[in-house]
Amino acid sequence: MDTQVNTEPAPSYCETLPETLELMAPRPLSLQETGLTLNFLQELVAKHLYDGGAMDSRELVARLALAGPILEEILGTMRTAAYIEVRGPAADSHGLRYALTDRGRAFAAEALAQSGYIGPAPVPLDRYSQIINAQSVHLQKVTRTQMRELFADVVINQQLLDQLGSAMRSGRAIFLYGPAGTGKTYMGERLAWLLGDAILVPHAIALGDAVVQIFDPAMHRPVGYLDDEPELMLHEGFDPRFVLCRRPAVISGGELTLDMLEIQYDPATRQYQAPLQLKANNGIYMIDDLGRQRVATVDLFNRWIVPMESRQDYLSLSSGKRFEIPFDVVLMFSTNMNPMELADDAFLRRLGHKIHFDFLQADDYAAIWRQVCDEHGISFDPELLRYVLQELHIPSKIPLLPCHPRDLLGMALDYSRYQEHSGRLTPHALAIAWANYFIDLNVNPDHGTTWVTQKTIGDHHA
């Protein structure tokens, strides 16, 4: 499974009021209020001009996410130092443009040799830490009413739903376990919908002269105040070095390595990227398929002991500089393996909430079957459901999973359309779907083990 993020449609509104955002992260109006040094910002402006050529003030403000007065101060000192020169407006420009001099190009090249970051001005670490705490995911108070509303359209055992709600309310790590296909990953993704308000995510943070990129379009979904505009305009009141986003729900699976949980440095581009849990801050981070990662499970668990207990994470730059940052995520683990084979009692106790997902009962299976029929525009036929339960599941001793109705009906529809039956379902189409969906391991005493498709096709057709 690849690392992914919740892809449900963003709401058409933002519950976080503009006034709250402005108080939390006021827009800097002076160089001092940025928390960055003049030399750092001069280097960043020089890199932008080196990258984009001559630009006017409006273009530089948009690129740097800094207020005009701050930019004017920076440009003034760069002119004094002979790093830039002023040029007339271009045909499509309404103001004077700024370009690097030979001295300025050398200055920019030296800056790029130290850091390849070219983007909006970063936010100092201490300021970002304050923002993390102010919009902590643990300030969200999950209630039973919210859980009932969120899962009103989902077939789920009510006791299981209450367990999940209680775990989300606690703020402690959550361990989901049970057979594959019982809905653990789906529920983990859906739980992120509880976190309905928006948060501020910085484009990048500054640690001295080093810049670590945090905002990731693959992980973060920007939202507007009252509409679905994907970008925030610079005239809005809060610090435009932040992007207003939905709370993230990041999921990583078998591809996870310990390196992905540390700051990544690319020597070719000389840029730092934040690790997964830092991009998931103020949201949910789920480690799926636990036990199948390319790292020993005990080492993966040990990585989380300190952050879980102290709610602080400790990260390092390539220079060896070490720093701490708030660890503000709902940490979730999901596995279809035996928990006792993955961790000892001491670590399992630290997890707090251990929630078991089991196979379905026939009534719940039938309810999901009806839902999938409605989604596909299929008339519900109780005889077809009886056929799948009595003639396919029971003889094959295959337990009932939430994914079966969706997959079997989808594959049966594929077969019916191929046969030009206009999507009409028959027991034979379901038998074909069943045979294509499952694998039958037949043991031949003379020739050993052979993988073959299920024999139910001919049997049920007859």
What does this entry look like structurally?
The protein is an alpha/beta fold. 41% of the residues lie in helices and 18% in strands. The chain has 19 helices and 20 strands. The chain has helices spanning 18-24, 31-34, 38-52, 57-64, 68-80, 102-114, 125-134, 144-150, 158-170, 184-191, 276-279, 297-310, 339-342, 345-351, 362-376, 382-396, 403-418, 427-437, 456-461; strands at 4-5, 55-56, 84-87, 97-100, 123-124, 174-177, 198-202, 204-207, 210-213, 242-246, 249-252, 264-266, 271-273, 283-287, 312-316, 322-326, 329-335, 353-356, 440-444, 448-452. The strands form 6 sheets. A 6-stranded mixed β-sheet has the order 1-11-14-17-6-18. A 5-stranded mixed β-sheet has the order 5-8-9-13-12. Strands 2-4-3 form a 3-stranded antiparallel β-sheet. Strand 8 and strand 9 form a beta hairpin. The longest helix is centred in the C-terminal third of the chain and has 16 residues, at 403-418. The model is unreliable at 9-14, 226-235 and 443-462 (pLDDT under 50).
Defining key terms:
alpha/beta, 19 helices, disordered C terminus, 462 residues, 6-stranded mixed sheet, single chain, 5-stranded mixed sheet
